[in-house]
Amino acid sequence: MTAVLVAGGAGFIGAQTCKALSQAGYLPVTLDNLVTGYEAAVKWGPLIKADLRDREAILKAISDHKITSAIHFAAYSLVGESTKNPAKYYDNNVGAATAFASALVEGGVEAIVFSSTAAAYGIPTVTPIPEDHVLAPINPYGGSKIAFEQVLHWMGQAHPLRHTILRYFNAAGADPDGEIGESHDPETHLIPLICQAALGTGKPLTVFGTDYDTKDGTAVRDYIHVVDLAAAHVAAVKRLLDGGSSRIFNVGTGEGVTVKEMLTTAEKVLGRPVPHSYGPRREGDPQSLVADVKRIRAELDWEAKHSDLETLIRTAAAWQANKKY
After folding, report:
1. Of 54, 58, 178, 199, whose CB is crowded by the most CB atoms within 10 A?
2. What are 30-36's contacts with CB under 8 Å, separation 24+?
3. Is residue 89 part of a domain?
4. CB under 8 Å to 230, separation ≥6 — which residues?
5. The total number of structural domains that make up the chain
6. Distance in angstroms (rounded) separating the CA atoms of residues 267 and 265
7. Is 179 a member of any domain?
8. Over the stretch 185-205, which tens digit does the pLDDT of each residue have?
9. Annotated catalytic residue: which of 141, 168, 212, 223?
10. Residues 6+ apart with CB under 8 A from 148
């Protein structure tokens, strides 16, 4: 069984990807310090409790499991926090990530898939956004992700380390089997906040901004189900192991949804109102973020299959009502 080292495999997307890797015949070996991840989410392979800077633990994992590829999820990802504490984000998302990549090179690993973000694009000048759009992040989180993308580029010039960068749009939903879901503290993502408001387990939702130049005045986003995201990672690993060259792909649906459309659909799917109010725009929130997905469809033979709004909301609500951790 081909083993894949998954840094951050105890988190929301990382754990779902470990499940998908296992279902595809790989052995996911999770490396996680459990600062934001959950040990209960690691079910499909071994867990190594270690930090990205723990060179000896990484080299031992590579040797013990004959690791030839890795996936890197282990980043801080709260935009607001990044603006208040940029050093924390650059220290982990660039410094620790670089230490991890260096250990991979030392251990002879030649393929890495990196979890990046649409925040790399900042305020887009075209919609949908292609991968060659100018990179102009408006927060330290996005900046830190781009910085590590550059690290991978230059490491690939100096060493036999090929990479695939996946720039996510809005990850959402939950495992259809109820084994994995979002358990962030604090929770900042729209769909779990909608579900918590509807179920009475969270505060009423605040919709930020009603005066955007969109069909109903609220912001537009491209929501991608975590199961589809996981499938993209499996496809990316396979491509690299088959000898594929370094490449960047957007991961989204190519379709935008307004916040009001999401609210309306949620009330329909859940059969209950979503308590909410309206507030001013948040500084730095782009009006619209929608992925151009032609490249990933053509080159990874990947398609979003679970990202319709009803599936996103239904699976997320089931997890929020019956959280395992």
Report:
1. 58
2. 30/6, 31/5, 31/6, 31/7, 31/57, 31/58, 31/61, 31/74, 32/7, 32/8, 32/74, 33/74, 34/10, 36/11, 36/76, 36/184
3. yes
4. 13, 16, 17, 19, 20
5. 1
6. 5
7. no
8. 888 899 999 999 999 999 999
9. 141
10. 93, 94, 97, 98, 114, 116
Domain of residue 239 covers: 3-171+225-251
Average pLDDT over every residue of 290-315: 98
Catalytic residue flag (residue 141): yes
Report the C-alpha gap between 223 and 256 in whole angstroms.
8
Per-residue pLDDT, 150: 98
Q: Quick check: 227 pLDDT over 90?
A: yes
Structure tokens at 315: 């699976």
- pLDDT 10s digits, 27-65: 999 999 999 999 999 999 999 999 999 999 999 999 999
Q: For 62, how many CA atoms within 13 A lie in the half-sphere containing its CB?
A: 22
Looking up residue 95, the CATH number of its domain turns out to be 3.40.50.720
**Is 26 domain-assigned?**
yes
Predicted TM-score (pTM) of the model is 0.96
Read off the amino acid at residue 113: V
Does the pLDDT of residue 100 top 80, yes or no?
A: yes
Is 323 inside a domain boundary?
Answer: no
DSSP-derived 3-state class of residue 40: helix
Please give the structure tokens belonging to residue 120: 């790399």
